[in-house]
User: Which sequence fits this backbone?
C-alpha cells in the first residue's frame, strides 16, 4: 500500500446534505472503531491519492466508499497548500503511522458534493468510521485545517447557488415550494418572505408544478414541483451576462 | 537545490499580453542558451514548487523572475493531473536531469496572468530562456501538456472576461475605445460592429471619457478613457444574479 500512495497530494470532500430543515455535512471519525457509537477525533472524508490516480477519481472513490453513491454532484473548489497545515504534532504522527510514509507536507485538493440525504446507503466504511451528519451551523472541531476547508466549501456553495441550479441536487426529485424555500434559508442563513419567494418562483418557467401533492405529511399536502433542466439551460443561454 | 524541491507539484503560468492587435502568450525555451536567438523546445513559464512554498508564491516568483513585474493579475484556473502528462520520454528525462530527482509524476497547478505588454522589463532570466510573445491564435508546439494548459487558460479568459472587468488589466491605463474593441475581438476571435460597440460602451458609467486625446498616432487621435473600478464594484453589487 505504502508504495502506491502519493505522499504529497490528497483529496478532501465536503459532503453536503439537506434534511428538510438544516444543511448538514457528513463527517467521519479519524480512526475506525469496533464500537460504531464511539466518538473520536473528527475529519472530512479524504485520502492521499493513489499512484496513477487522477484527483476526480480519488474524490469519486472516497464518496462511493462512504455513501454507496455514484454519479453525484462533485465540484473542485480549492487547493489548501499552507506548509503548516499538518503541524499539530499528534495529527501528523497519526498520518505518518497510517500511511507508513515520512510525510511532512501534503497539499490537499478540496471538492464539495451535494447529495440527496435519503439516498445514502450505509456502507461498511461509513459504519466503521461512524460517518454522521452535522449541522453546518455548528460543525465540531476537526483535525488539520478541515474546519477551514469546510467553511470555504460552504462559502463556495452559498456563492455558486446564486448563479447555478445547485439546490435541486439537494432536494428530492419532486419537491414542495416550502422545501425549496427552507433550503435557500438554510444555506444563506436568513429568512425569506413567503409571498415574495412564491411570486419569484412562479415567474421561473423551469420550476414546473405537477398534478400531484405531498403524501404523508401532517400539514395540508402541498403541490409538488420538478426542476426542468433543459428549459433552464435554454433560458440561461439567452441571458449570458456580458460585462460590456 | 534538490532537497528543496517538491518533486510532485509544480506551477505553470499562461502569461497573456495584448499588443494593440493581437492577444499573445509569453513562452520560454526549455533550456537556457548563450545565444538568445536560438530556438529550442518551447514551454510555459513554470517550476516545481520549493519546499515550504505556497502555490501562489511560486506563481508570483516565476512571473517576477521572468517579467520583472510584481502585483499583477494572477488567477488559478486548473489542475492538470493526468498521470501520463510527462510521458514523452525525452521531456521526462530532461525534467529528471534538471531537478536531479527521480520524478515520475508531477501534478501542475495552472495560473493565468494578464500584463500590460509595455510594462515588462527584460530580465536576465527572460534573456537566457529567450522569452518571446507568440500570438494565441497560433501557439507553437510545446513540451508536456503545455499546449493543452495554454488552450484551457485561453478558454477561461474568454469565459471570465464576459463577467469580470479583466480586459482593463491588458490595456494601458488610458485607452481609446477602438483599442478596447480590438482587444475584445482578439480574445473572442470575432469582429464586433463598431456602432453597436460604442453605443453599448457609452451606457456603462464605469468607462469614463477623459478630456484628453491619443498622442503620436497616424490616424485622427481618439478620445481617451479610463476604467473606474469603484464605480464598477458599486454597480455590480446591485446587479447580483440570483437563480431564483
Assistant:
Amino acid at each position: 500500500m505504502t508504495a502506491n500512495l502519493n505522499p504529497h497530494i490528497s483529496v478532501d470532500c465536503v459532503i453536503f446534505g439537506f434534511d428538510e430543515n438544516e444543511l448538514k455535512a457528513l463527517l467521519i471519525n479519524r480512526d475506525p472503531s469496533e464500537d460504531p457509537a464511539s466518538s473520536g477525533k473528527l475529519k472530512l472524508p479524504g485520502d492521499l491519492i493513489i499512484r496513477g490516480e487522477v484527483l476526480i477519481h480519488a474524490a469519486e472513490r472516497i464518496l462511493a466508499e462512504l455513501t454507496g453513491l455514484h454519479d453525484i454532484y462533485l465540484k473542485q473548489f480549492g487547493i489548501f497548500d499552507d506548509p503548516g497545515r499538518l503541524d499539530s504534532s499528534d495529527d501528523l504522527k497519526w498520518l505518518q503511522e497510517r500511511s507508513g510514509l515520512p510525510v511532512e507536507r501534503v497539499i490537499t485538493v478540496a471538492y464539495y458534493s451535494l447529495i440527496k440525504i435519503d439516498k445514502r446507503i450505509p456502507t461498511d466504511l461509513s459504519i466503521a468510521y461512524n460517518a454522521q451528519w452535522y449541522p453546518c451551523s455548528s460543525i465540531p472541531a476537526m483535525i488539520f485545517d478541515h474546519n477551514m476547508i469546510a467553511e470555504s466549501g460552504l462559502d463556495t456553495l452559498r456563492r455558486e447557488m446564486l448563479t447555478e441550479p445547485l439546490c435541486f441536487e439537494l432536494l428530492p426529485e419532486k419537491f414542495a415550494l416550502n422545501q425549496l424555500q427552507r433550503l435557500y434559508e438554510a444555506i444563506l442563513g436568513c429568512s425569506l418572505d413567503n409571498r415574495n419567494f412564491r411570486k419569484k418562483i412562479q415567474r421561473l418557467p423551469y420550476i414546473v408544478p405537477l398534478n400531484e401533492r405531498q403524501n404523508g405529511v401532517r400539514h395540508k399536502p402541498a403541490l409538488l414541483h420538478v426542476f426542468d433542466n433543459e428549459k433552464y439551460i435554454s433560458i440561461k443561454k439567452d441571458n449570458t451576462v456580458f460585462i460590456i
